[in-house]
């Protein structure tokens, strides 16, 4: 790869490529993607594959006359996951491994590190990890919800150099190319701002849950970690060949010049806030200086039910989102102190001895 010097990449393949008819797997669009993966590995680049399509792959095994409710979709995912893994294995002459993840796995810090350890052990033994959301058993509350964002979280976890999102469109356009013949492809994005987000439409196909919006969310997560991101047309052999040659066949998202540190990135883009701590408007400067400076007297309200060690959003009274952090006290303790006008002496002393937040586990948010 003449232009791109990658040591480790994540490539995400959507449902429209795995099961283009929405019923069962097909190798129609997978051959060129598989060849790209093989070429990367031959050049010494480690690859993690994030593959959608388990529900669509399993559809054929069930009565098509029934409406696919939540339970049926989970059953389809359970059966289809086997079909999807078999479809990929047929394309490779090296071993692959299955990693089924949930938001709950990524949310818990110890499980998050376990995922990293497993992925690196597989990569170091030349085994291709194939990642998907565990749709067969995961309730909606514990789902990431789409594999675009999941791929960015995985890319961050393994400190990838690049994230390649393969879809059924040539990249990001200034307007929907399926509806407007004069739509222009955006070749490079340096900053994902409101005008870029406004270009995202809804889901473009009948299968999958991730439209262009989730792909931009994924690019935002990845580039914040210093990971170069591409949205490319996985149906195009020419596009995959261009990537092999170090060329950009789609839309390239430039990584941040000063990426977030691993712990701050995990808090900002992976960990889901379990509740909120509302603080006085004057607390912002103390948070920036040192998160441990936040006192119980700064707390105006506690929203949600969370435990010590959970991730929370720190929000000012005026609504500004200040930070995400790991709380060292439960919502019960903090609420009790907040409700007491003078503050219970024993509880206040406890909170003062153990800071509400640890400066080692806080990420200041740049946007409101």
TrEMBL record:
Keywords, alphabetical: Amino-acid biosynthesis, ATP-binding, Cytoplasm, Kinase, Nucleotide-binding, Proline biosynthesis, Transferase
Residue positions binding substrate: 52, 135, 147
InterPro entries tied to this protein: AceGlu_kinase-like_sf (IPR036393), Asp/Glu/Uridylate_kinase (IPR001048), G5K_ProB (IPR041739), Glu/AcGlu_kinase (IPR001057), Glu_5kinase (IPR011529), Glu_5kinase/COase_Synthase (IPR005715), Glutamate_5-kinase_CS (IPR019797), PUA-like_sf (IPR015947)
Positions of the Aspartate/glutamate/uridylate kinase domain: 7-233
Protein family (similarity comment): Belongs to the glutamate 5-kinase family.
GO MF annotation terms: ATP binding; glutamate 5-kinase activity; RNA binding
GO biological process: L-proline biosynthetic process
Purpose: Catalyzes the transfer of a phosphate group to glutamate to form L-glutamate 5-phosphate.
Underlying gene: proB
Annotated protein name in UniProt: Glutamate 5-kinase
